[in-house]
């Protein structure tokens, strides 16, 4: 009986408190392009799949292609994946990705192993990389 109780408690902890977000089904035409080896590491680190959360809302991002000037982003929303072009800028020695969203200019910037997403009106979402 004690083993069953321990097992049930472990299952509840796993299901309620320790679950990771479920990355949505990937677009059929997805093609993540490996960044050019000549690209600065700080810029190449944007490439790949990311997940973040703000309150109850989950965000999923794929930086599909990136170079010194432009990036192709896939952002998951309530309607599925949206593809958007973005610009690369370097401000005060730090690389950023900028794109126009529904409510204005949006920005992604790296902070160590995290990706911060700033969107109007003053919302910040922190992403972590997904293997």
Which structural traits does this protein have?
131 residues; alpha+beta; single chain; Lipocalin; eight-stranded antiparallel barrel; globular
What is the element layout, followed by pairings?
Elements: H1 2-17, H2 41-44, E1 48-54, E2 57-66, E3 70-77, E4 80-91, E5 94-101, E6 104-111, E7 114-119, E8 123-130
Antiparallel strand pairs: 1-2, 1-8, 2-3, 3-4, 4-5, 5-6, 6-7, 7-8
Note poorly predicted spans.
1-19
Task: Provide the CATH architecture.
Answer: Beta Barrel
Main beta-sheet strand count, sense and barrel state: 8 strands, antiparallel, barrel
Question: What is the terminal separation in angstroms?
Answer: 39 Å
Helix content: 10-25%
Alpha-beta content class: alpha+beta
- H/E element order: HHEEEEEEEE
User: What is the average per-residue confidence, as pLDDT, rounded to a whole number?
Assistant: 82
- Can you count the helices? 2
Radius of gyration: 18 Å
How are the strands ordered across the major sheet? 1-2-3-4-5-6-7-8
Looking at the structure, the CATH topology is Lipocalin
Shape: globular
DSSP strand tally: 8
CATH class: Mainly Beta
The amount of beta strand, in percent, is over 45%
State the domain count. Answer: 1
Describe the structure.
The chain contains two helices and eight strands; from the N terminus they run ααββββββββ. It has helices spanning 2-17, 41-44; strands at 48-54, 57-66, 70-77, 80-91, 94-101, 104-111, 114-119, 123-130. The protein has an eight-stranded antiparallel barrel. The termini are far apart.
């Amino acid at each position: 009986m004690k083993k069953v109780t321990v097992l049930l408690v472990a299952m509840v902890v796993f299901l309620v408190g320790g679950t990771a977000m479920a990355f949505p089904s990937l677009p059929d035409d997805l093609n993540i392009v490996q960044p050019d080896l000549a690209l600065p590491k700080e810029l190449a680190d944007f490439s790949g799949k990311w997940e973040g959360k703000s309150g109850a809302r989950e965000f999923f991002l794929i930086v599909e292609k990136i170079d010194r000037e432009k990036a192709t982003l896939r952002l998951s929303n309530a309607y599925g994946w949206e593809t958007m072009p973005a610009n690369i800028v370097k401000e005060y020695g730090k690389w950023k990705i900028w794109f126009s969203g529904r409510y204005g200019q949006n920005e992604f910037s790296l902070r160590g192993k995290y990706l911060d997403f700033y969107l109007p009106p003053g919302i910040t979402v922190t992403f972590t990389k997904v293997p």
